[in-house]
Amino acid sequence: MALTLPAHPDPLTERLHASGLLHELAHGLGGPFHYLLPERFATNLAGFRAALTDAGVEGRVYYAKKANKADAFIDRCAAAGAGVDVASLGELREALGHGVRGEDLVVTGPAKSEQLLSVAVRQGALIAVDALDELDRLLARTGERPARVLLRRHPPSQRRSRFGLDDAQLQQALDRCAQVGDTVRMEGFSFHLSGYEIQARADLAGELVELCLKARMSGLQADRISIGGGFPVDYVAADTWDAFLTEQGPAHYHGQKSFAAGDFYPYHSPVAGSDALRAILAARPGGTGASLATRLREAGVMLLLEPGRALLDRAGASVFRVQGVKDRTGYGIVTVDGTSLSLSEQWFDSEYLPEPQLLPARSAETTPGPFPACVGGASCLDSDLLTWRKVPFPARPRVGDLLVYPNTAGYQMDSNESPFHELPLPPKVVIDHPDGGSRPRWRLDR
Questions:
Q1: What's the whole-model pTM score?
Q2: How far out from the chain centre does Cα 158 lie?
Q3: Per residue in 384-425, pLDDT tens?
Q4: Helix, strand, or coil here: 414?
Q5: How many CB atoms lie within 10 A of CB 25?
Q6: What CATH number should be reported for the domain whose range is 11-37+314-444?
Q7: pLDDT tens column, 56-81
């Protein structure tokens, strides 16, 4: 029996799907495309800022640009005065080119190139230093403005992490920063923590607050910490998610493919987005004493965060046109006009589980469902499946119908893109909803 896992209902996208615009775009663009909803990005950004304000914590939100390459979201950051987290020279240039100020950038990533460091220093960006040799290169610079740095802490709870400075290296870095005077401005600490645990982030953030107090005794500024990203997104309802994890097995996938439940992104989270930030601020580091918010206020420490996926929640979807349908025993194989390279969860040998919505191309009589089917791509690779799971579609899809994968703006759209077979990359279409309830407008993302 097929398992269903629909995304949460979304009135805004439902109105868009009912407008007929997506079929017009599929015809005009001649292939698959992604649509973007920048107003959702702005709403999510406002939610994170409100969480900081309500907790009485001074803070700053940096959008993790790696989550989506679209210009529309960087434009929103520039307009709102938000920061951007970049990890390459190309991302830095893009952000500057769209009006984000240099001092509103934080440069992350390991082993940064000399050119990236040079531009970051000249533009006044904040640099998360990941290794001692990286710090040495910054200390060796002369004749420029002081480099603004955060020292990245290696997470004690994740010893296998390749990021950050261990205890001994962190002490060496602090000593060097204290000795060089104005060559660098050591503004605080950061960490890169995998997973989505609330308490783990609060615990390590509490440790960074104590590190700031210690660093100040050596004459360093140390007045801010970054807790990075890792704010979960809630895609599907709790009951359907629990049922899926309990029941899913090889019989639910094409070719009897096997997925371990623990390898899936947690598509349901009871505390997500800005509510996860509220929970982190309310948590007590180490499980005792004052809350993290109270410790930040009392220590005069600013909280920096770098959400990506959480700022893009419900801010876009991916649209594919059905090119053919074939039958197998007990299910079908729908082939669309794109490839699995446009849904980057395949990169992790996993599956993007929120199921696509079928939008029929015409009102002709359909074969009643459910019609369980996996979704294959247009390439010659046997492994090119956008969805291995046999999704129970409400009717048998037909050539020309659309499949809309919901909520794909966060990491799915372009992390793994490739013009394989000379197939064009799906363009991004920015959708605006004018006031007054008029028909949505669109434009191509630049």
A1: 0.95
A2: 21
A3: 999 999 999 999 999 999 999 999 999 999 888 878 777 888
A4: coil
A5: 18
A6: 2.40.37.10
A7: 999 999 999 999 999 999 999 999 99
